[in-house]
Specification:
31 helices; 16 strands; alpha/beta; 5-stranded mixed sheet; AIPR protein
């Protein structure tokens, strides 16, 4: 067996392990052997990989397998890109993830056709005959809703076998371009093991243009890179984005534009009204490549014949806007040209140099503010902390996998003998492994942002990193207390996952989990003792009982508050979270006793309050919530209330007093009357748009 074959078989074992873990997360250990659940878990794991590679964006895993009319229709997931009028449907060929066999072209074709039938059914209104409040209903209703604007359908076939051919003949659909992309185990292995956050794209410029692309070679003393200058036509940019989409964009650029929108209105207006001046107005494109094939004419002038691994590091909105201008707005691009700088980066420097090029190329826009790579100082520091901080008892530690596959690499490196392998597994059990996506879910849920978590793994991660940058800056590094609180929040999140498995919700399980965690954090207003959870490496019986009691109520409220709207989309809205905050649930007495034990008591107001005797559970919640607000916000509310007259004079006075308390570190703890009035001030500000946004508080 060759070295490459060894690596492939090792990768398959790792993939099986991931799928087993995901199965347990989804439905518990009892049903892990079920092929149907393993197919869902396999799809979910592969979707995570494809999202990180930029192959798909914010896909929803959703199993639909029915007969529509006389024909079979099946998908395992879906995604909508409204800006580009594109729908992605994911369909899985799953045989149990045993020894990989061959997947025939016929099987691939049948799978693709079944997926296309799902879309046909959706645009013809299939959802009207379905039971509402299910994920399959949401999918079919959403596909129907966007279908009038859809011009392109991309079918992604995932197979747990090897497809030597790997292509599917074009599928003819009226008024719709259909493309099929096959991901078998070999392709997954190559992309997932490459060490870079994308699958290298090969672009034959000579074939696309009819001749190589003329360029200037900008020589450099550095042995790390060489740069080339060229002018790209608008039609070439359109065709490249049409064929490859966001896969052309470097990780940071791709992540930022997925969160903020790819199309720039100013660029769009220039393309529509002054296409001939586009090159003069536009800053152009900067890109990197792994390989550049050059040719020279008789006069020694250089041209680029082909590019491999092209990644746009600056100008993502330019290429996306050019594509939309032609595809959606029918703009003639014959007069549109864009200057481009293409930097050839040596393979050994790709992982470190390309993110730096992206950051420095974007110094004048917000892409520079966030680094979404595994090499961000925050993730490096979290990994260091996970390697040095042991759980209480010094028997085990948590393992932070800042890049996919690091756990298996460490296990292989340390487990050179059976005894060493047992030692590694005992000290670093697989169930104590977590990654970037998990971290973002844990912390955004605990920070009361369940609507953000509901956007999907990648978008939630991007939002988390952007918020981290706004609050702390790029060079901030977390300390041990931050790490312990992170693990404690993760323990709470995982307990809610376990409770969700018990209830076996038919849909919206992930939404119910994040909303339950967020509601706990919100209602207890920072009073949950995360240190206690860290020390116990578990939640208390009282806390677990509260979560168990609340979770079905949270689930029901998410569904009922949608009021006939698409529940999946509703859960992504801030309004959904605002509605859940008013849910009529109370903190059980047993948990309230735990929360009260560590809470600071008022040192202003009535004497009975200072001993705690005169405080109700609601009073304690109000005081804790008031003390969560930053001094800058209380000061802002004081000024806002006076300026707009939305607050009475005595209310602005209370806000000013609390700003003073907060600025002094809450040495003075507000009385229950002050807290009651402060909650009313916050309610008024919420209703009238008077609250600060998080970036304004910093």
């Amino acid at each position: 067996m060759t070295y490459e074959q060894d690596r492939y078989h090792e990768y398959l074992n790792v993939l099986r392990s991931r799928v087993n873990e995901r199965s347990t997360e989804l439905i518990g250990a009892d049903d892990v052997a079920s092929v149907a659940f393993r197919e869902e878990a396999f799809t979910s794991v592969v979707v995570d990989v494809l999202e990180e590679l930029g192959q798909i964006a914010s896909a929803q895993v959703c199993y639909f397998d029915r007969r529509v009319g006389r024909s079979a229709a099946k998908v395992n997931g879906w995604s909508v890109d409204e800006e580009n009028g594109e729908i992605e449907l994911i369909t899985t060929l799953f045989r149990g993830l045993g020894e990989p066999g061959s997947v025939t072209a016929t099987e691939l074709s049948h799978a693709a056709h079944r997926a296309v039938r799902v879309y046909d059914a959706a645009r013809n209104g299939y959802h009207t005959g379905m039971e509402p409040a299910s994920q399959t209903y949401d999918m079919m209703q959403r596909l129907h809703q966007v279908s009038p604007e859809v011009t392109r359908l991309r079918v992604i076939v995932i197979a747990d076998g090897n497809a030597p051919n790997g292509t599917v003949p074009d599928i003819a659909e009226k008024d719709l371009e259909v493309r099929t992309d096959v991901w078998d185990l070999q392709r997954l292995f190559r992309a997932d093991s490459s060490g870079v956050a994308y699958e290298p794209i090969e672009i034959d410029l000579e074939a696309r243009l009819g001749a190589p692309l003329p360029c200037l070679v900008a020589t450099a003393d550095s042995q790390d890179y060489t740069s080339y200058l060229a002018v790209l036509s608008g039609d070439l940019l359109h065709s490249l984005y049409h064929d490859f989409g966001a896969r052309l964009l470097e990780l940071n650029v791709r992540s930022f534009l997925q969160a903020k929108g790819k199309v720039n209105r100013g660029i769009r207006d220039t393309l529509t009204n002054n296409p001939g001046k586009f090159m003069a107005y536009n800053n152009g494109i900067s890109a990197t490549a792994e390989h550049v094939e050059l040719v020279q004419d008789a006069g020694g002038r250089a041209s680029i014949r082909s590019l491999t691994g092209l990644q746009i590091v600056n100008g993502g909105q330019t290429i996306a806007s050019v594509h939309r201008a032609k595809a959606r707005d029918r703009v003639d691009l014959s007069d549109v040209h864009v200057q481009a700088k293409i930097t050839l980066v040596r393979p050994e420097h790709i992982e470190t140099l390309v993110p730096d090029i992206s950051r420095f190329a974007n110094t004048q826009n917000k892409v520079n503010e966030a680094d979404f790579s595994a090499n961000h100082p925050f993730h490096v520091r979290i990994q260091q902390l996970s390697q040095t901080i042991w759980a209480p008892g010094e028997q085990t530690r948590w393992f932070y996998e800042r890049a996919r596959g690091q756990y298996e690499v460490a296990r292989t490196r340390e487990g050179t003998t059976e005894a060493r392998l047992r030692k590694f597994d005992a000290a670093t059990p697989a169930h104590q492994r977590f990654g970037k996506i998990d971290l973002a879910k844990y912390l955004n849920s605990w920070d009361a942002l369940p609507h953000t978590v509901s956007l999907g793994n990648q978008k939630n991660f991007v939002e988390f990193m952007q918020r981290l940058g706004r609050v702390h800056g790029r060079d901030w590094e977390p300390g041990e207390a931050y790490y312990r609180n992170l693990i404690a929040a993760g323990i709470v999140f995982r307990r809610v996952e376990k409770i969700a498995r018990k209830y076996k919700f038919p849909a919206y399980r992930a939404n119910a989990i994040t909303y339950t965690v967020a509601l706990l954090s919100y209602r207890t207003a920072g009073r949950v003792d995360l240190d206690r959870i860290w020390l116990a490496q578990d939640v208390s019986a009282a806390l677990s009982g509260c979560l168990d009691e609340w979770m079905p109520r949270v689930y029901d409220e998410i569904v009922s508050s949608a009021n006939g709207r698409n529940v999946t989309e509703w859960a992504k809205k801030p309004d959904c979270w605002r509605q859940l905050q008013t849910l009529d649930v109370s903190v059980p007495d047993a948990l309230e006793c735990e929360l009260a034990a560590g809470q600071a008591l008022p040192n202003v107001g009535a004497l009975s309050e200072r001993t705690g005797a005169g405080l109700t559970a609601t009073d304690r919640e109000h005081i804790a919530r008031v003390m969560q607000i930053e001094p800058a916000e209380w000061l802002h509310l004081c000024a806002w209330g006076a300026q707009t007259q939305e607050l009475k004079e005595w209310q602005t006075g209370i806000a000013g007093t609390l700003a003073t308390y907060a600025a002094a570190g809450w040495v003075k703890v507000p009385s229950k009357k002050q807290a009651f009035q402060a909650i009313e001030i916050l309610r008024i500000a919420d209703q009238c748009g008077g609250r600060l946004q998080d970036e304004e508080v910093v």
